[in-house]
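fwd from M.: "can u put these together and see what the complex looks like"

so here's what she sent:
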Amino acid sequence: MGILVNKDSKVIVQGMTGREGASHSRAMKEFGTQVVAGVTPGKGGMDFEGWPIYNSVAEAKEATGANVSIIFVPPAGAADAVLEAAHAGIPLVILITEGVPTVDMMRAVQEVKMLDAQSRESGGEGVRLIGGNCPGLVTNGEAKVGIMPNKIYTKPGRIGLISRSGTLTYEAAKLLNDAGMGTSTTVGIGGDPVIGTTFADVLPMFEADEGTDAIVVIGEIGGADEEAAAEYIKHNMKKPVVAFISGRSAPAGKRMGHAGAIIMGNVGTPESKLAAFADANVPVADTMPEIIDLVKAALSK
Amino acid sequence: MKLHEYQGKEILRQFGVNVQEGRIAKTPDEVRQIARDYGDAVVVKAQVHVGGRGKAGGVKFSPTPDKAYENGEKILGMDIKGLTVNKVLVTKAVDIDAGVEYYIGMIVDRNVQSFTLMASAEGGVDIEEVAAETPEKIVHYRVDPITGLRPYEARDVAIRAGFKGNLNKIADMMVKLSQAALARDAVLVEINPLFVDASGTPLALDTKFEIDDNAMYRHKDLADWREMEAEHPLEIEASKYGFAYVKLDDGNVGVLGNGAGIVMTSLDVVNRAGAKPANFLDIGGGAKAEIVYNAVKLVSKDTDVKAIFINIFGGITRADEVAKGVIQALQDGILTKPVRMRIAGTAEEEAKALLAEVNSPLIQMYPNMFDAAAEAAKEANAASAAASGKTVENK
């Protein structure tokens, strides 16, 4: 069980022949993911460590039946790579690239949403973009479509994990793993201001997933995605949710590494996020290890 | 990248926005000359990257060229919130009472995954104050990032905001603002005040313009506008190494880690341990010894830093590479402050062995981030206390 990806997912890698694309293709294969092909425009027909390379996503999909694409294309071409995959009919597109211009992301996200609506209206399964600037997805014991270290996912479990940060995703997954609980699916949604999928988009999937008992949400300062998640949880969720917010001591007006991690005026403050989670009865861990205690407490209720 | 008022105006002018005429001066003589050329009252405006320059005395009305010279003398070289004024914009003065002042702006809004256009008839004041006190006086409208703002949409927003004057001309200015924002990858662009004169014609009197750093690669013509002197020297050095570095005020613990999330959390952990972080430094993933060496070198240069907390979660980053970088810094005499670090994951044992070999009290490794942060905080606070003790004695 789990959400979005599983052992049957057929994955293509856009930008496979680049340094990042190559090393992560190997790591995904090692994890057990069905990586079926790579796409690098101009290198079609090449064999790359046993994988066929195609010039376009459409060709790769036609030849392999791929239903997931992961993108390692550099920032200037990243939004175009997203649109190529979406127009080729790939239902799940994961953008790892960091540093994509925000205007490019606005346009790509809007177009993907339009394609998604069109696909659903005509009975298709829709199109979803995850990221950019994200670590990707892992359904423990089944498939990894991302860049997380393989060895922190040794124990499949029943806790869902959603995070804006890459490294904190690893921390949390490892803590859950070491505590003997393990994870179902991990979703890294990304640290940019405009992203394809938000907390509130992922929560209903976990609520409906039979393989997930509780959800951990790892947010950070900036924006109001945590507030939107709290609103959704308050009105719609029966499964327990535990939250963590990083950057609580960061000063306003300074961008903390992630393009989206900035307090602007009174938007994006930790106080607002804490208040929203309190209102939704979502316990917030003060430290990462406390997440484990709160999840245990929530599950024993 | 934040632009100065005159730079923001230059971009808006390129997109056809009617902008108040002005010229840049670097000396009081130049200020007087510009005022003489205009043959009219002028306003002398400090060009610095901080808000509230008016309140700080950085904007002055000057009825005569001699008064303009005097004001230029006062403002040039002035210190506004830690930044020295090196240039002023001299613009023709406008009789504000002969018209009205409005506000228009566009900002990246993650909640609508696009730009939001804001318009308010309450111009000429800080829009954040309007937003806090009378939010109903600001009209918000999502701009389609593919088409940009269309004239009919602009007219609708202008009407809803209660703008009086030539509706078509005002809407046209809003459309051009949207074109500039999209084409120049703005994060934020404001015209405030947007002055509408008695004939109904709109004129941009002041602007704010900030460009998306991720998009600077396609605005090479604006690269020269980046002012190194306006940034912290350590931030400039960090950008050479490709680090995400932010200098933080009143701190005593240098903080570095691999990933924005882990570093943000490290700041929180240092705070909880009773000390204050002096910086944010993300060295990125897969960091080799040389990168760690450069990071330690950078943080060590900060005289505020009394101890260093390193927090690494090793996925692709190897603990022994981190240890090698820190040890090299020690051996080269660059590292003179205590380093307390937590490195979890890959090659942890190798790292421990390397540190045992060096056996320096300056470098200690801990099994979790809380112990490492607590030790770094203890060292830093002790050093800070000793330093302030000395200062007291000297007085």
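replying to her w this: Residues 76 and 108 of chain B are 33 Å apart (CA to CA).
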